[in-house]
Specification:
This protein has about 120 residues and is an alpha+beta fold. The protein has a single domain (about 10-120), classed as Signal recognition particle alu RNA binding heterodimer, srp9/1 (2-Layer Sandwich), CATH 3.30.720.120. Helix content is about 15%, strand content about 40%. It is built from two helices and seven strands. It has helices at about 20-30, 85-90; strands at about 10-15, 30-40, 45-50, 55-60, 75-80, 100-105, 115-120. Strands 2-3-4-1-5-7-6 form a seven-stranded mixed sheet, covered by helices on one side.
Length: about 120
């Protein structure tokens, strides 16, 4: 994400069938696929969707189920220009939370997006 991009926060949903979820959000709400990451076999692993400008992520997780206690099915994604400095300034997370991670996503040749995630 370039330093001129406004920071944002978006939900990241873990679902048992990401392609089915993407198809549903498209049919029901007109969701547009902004970013797509396919697995080695070509199946959808992660997608960023937008509904009327509201952005969210869907991740394929075959173990995701609302019935599984303790399994996190929603994370919040904070997108900022420099997630490493935001992380360094943040206080330690409670012991029950997973560690904050940063990653870069994007298509080859395009400006990459840096993501910072923290979740339970």
């Amino acid at each position: 994400m370039s330093s001129t991009t406004s920071p944002g926060i978006a939900p990241w949903l873990a679902v048992s069938d990401a392609q089915r979820a993407v198809d549903y959000y498209h049919a029901a709400f007109g969701a547009v696929e902004v970013y797509r990451l396919a697995g080695g076999d070509g199946t959808l692993e992660v997608a960023q969707l937008s509904i009327a400008g509201a952005v969210f992520w869907v991740q394929n997780d075959v173990a995701a189920s609302p019935d599984r206690r303790g399994a996190g099915s929603v994370r919040m994604i904070l997108s900022v220009g420099d997630p490493d400095s935001v992380y360094r300034r943040s206080p330690p997370a409670p012991p029950s939370w997973r560690r904050c991670t940063t990653s870069t996503v994007g298509e080859p040749g395009a400006s990459p997006t840096r993501l910072a995630t923290i979740g339970r």
